[in-house]
Design goal:
The complex is a heterodimer. By secondary structure, chain A is mostly helical. Chain A has 7 helices and no strands. Chains A and B meet through helix 1, helix 4 and helix 5 of A and helix 1, helix 2 and strand 1 of B.
């Protein structure tokens, strides 16, 4: 049986806090776009995805406080119960931080297979909270977004890594 | 003696500890928000911080809409114009009739000594976005407390009732649609005046008349309008049309499903209605003797 070889590790520049904040705000903006109809069905939770990305990539920079605040913003924007997204993002951040060494052993595509269950857990927490508060089960299509998010993981991680690549030294021959 | 080596790096509490702290905080918020009404000011503050982001996010769609408005063809404008002219012509006739009828109504009401009907004010608003919460049916419109919007106002489009303003932020307000599961409208059947309460089901384009006995006279195609009972909605707004009536003799109640008349899931422009006059105060409860109060409590 062939063992999975660890993915070649790239050495990247350390991500600046400002850059992380910028990507999180961008994710919030994408979430706030006026999605409707089938777009709403397949829409992944971009904030959850980016929070998870930074928890895996920079667990010392991405904190619980940021995840919690983003959750509060999402709760107000969606007009949902206060704390519902916050709770889900906190647990997501914890899972990301605990699992980051393991996830980073893999290449980008198998990483997505780790990401999908975590995002499904995120959805599940929200569903449980809302059903406890008296809402109906929204239907299984609610979970489609997390699979779309898994598919978006490789392009997203490539995109977020672009500014972190070291610039080639112009004096190097 | 047991010693623990001092940590090399200062890392603060462990992730598990932080998880527990923040989860407890979130759960406390959840319970407070679901059961009590203390968090409205906090929501207002976060909403103000969030407002610029919401405007930026909704800008591309509104720009695209304006651009497509700009690039209209001559023929479509002409067709629109012709249609509007004919509509205006037929509406003008109805308006004249309405004025005559209103005058007559006022005279008759004066004769029998009934109260005047409520006047209604209207303010136009545009939908900023549909809330992305799959558990409820809500939209967000671009008028808020700054434009004197108040929670409880009825929201209509050109065909009928859309919903009710439920939360007001400084520049935006949140409208719960009639299709939301927790939304109820007092209605009456236009054909025979039967009163009922129409409730949303949570699914798009379906409303339900619940707890109607199986011999009640509701038929397919009946139009339901607001009855004005309860004082939230002005009377006479079209709400829904009965689409399916199922009478099963083994059950106590009929299953009556309706479809909303307004384009509940597709609209960009809405009217927020406000009742001009306050309802008369509730009649004071008759003073009870002490004995009867005690009896009531015992029950």
């Amino acid at each position: 049986m062939a063992h999975a070889r660890p993915a070649p590790q790239e050495i990247l520049l350390p991500a600046k806090t400002g850059y992380i904040a910028l990507t999180l705000i961008a994710a919030l903006l994408v979430n706030l776009l006026p999605w409707s109809g089938y777009g709403l069905w397949i829409k992944p939770d971009f904030v959850a995805l980016v929070v998870l990305y930074w928890c895996v990539e920079q667990p010392r920079k991405m904190g619980f406080v940021a995840a919690w605040l983003l959750g509060m913003f999402m709760d107000v924007a969606d007009g949902t119960l206060f704390g519902q997204h916050a709770l889900a993002y906190i647990i997501l951040a914890y899972a990301g931080i605990v699992l980051h060494r393991r996830v980073r052993m893999f290449a980008v595509t198998p990483q997505a297979l780790h990401i999908i269950p975590l995002l499904l857990l995120n959805d599940l927490i929200i569903v449980i909270v809302r059903m406890l508060a008296g809402a109906d089960f929204p239907g299984w299509h609610y979970f489609i977004g997390s699979f779309v998010a898994g598919a978006l993981w490789p392009p997203l991680s490539a995109l977020l890594k672009i500014p972190l690549r070291p610039k080639p030294d112009p004096f190097h021959v | 003696m047991e010693y623990q080596a001092p940590p090399f790096f200062k890392t603060g509490p462990t992730p598990l500890a932080r998880l527990l702290i923040f989860s407890a905080l979130s759960l406390a918020l959840l319970v407070t928000d679901a059961r009590l009404d203390y968090l409205a000011p906090l929501r207002q503050i976060v909403a103000v911080i969030l407002y610029p982001l919401q405007r930026i996010a909704s800008a591309p769609a509104s720009i695209a809409r304006r651009a497509s408005n700009f690039f209209v063809t001559h023929s479509s404008l002409r067709a629109d114009n012709a249609r509007l002219a004919t509509e205006n012509f037929s509406n003008a006739r109805l308006l004249q009739e309405l004025k005559a009828l209103q005058a007559e109504n006022a005279r008759l009401r004066a004769l029998i000594g009934a109260r005047e009907r409520f006047g209604v004010t209207a303010a136009a608003a545009e939908v900023v976005y549909a809330a992305r919460d799959p558990f409820s049916r809500k939209i967000v419109v671009d008028k808020g407390a700054r434009d004197d919007v108040k929670a409880g106002q009825a929201v209509v489009d050109e065909r009928g009732l859309v919903g009710q303003v439920t939360r007001v932020y400084p520049w935006l307000s949140e409208v719960t649609l009639v299709t939301d599961k927790s939304h109820f409208v007092p209605v009456q059947n236009l054909r025979n005046g039967l009163r009922a309460v129409l409730s949303g089901t949570g699914s798009e384009d379906t409303l339900e008349l619940r707890f109607i006995s199986i011999n009640a006279d509701h038929r397919n195609g009946d139009e339901l309008v607001t009855s004005g009972i309860g004082g939230v909605y002005p009377p006479g707004l079209p709400v829904a049309r009965v689409s399916h009536v199922e009478r099963n003799a083994t059950q106590l109640f009929a299953r009556i499903t309706c479809t909303p008349l307004a384009g509940v899931s597709s609209h960009t422009r809405l009217l927020l209605l406000g009742l001009e006059r306050e309802l008369p105060p509730r009649p004071a409860e008759e003073p009870k003797t002490r004995g009867s109060k005690k009896k009531l409590r015992k029950r």
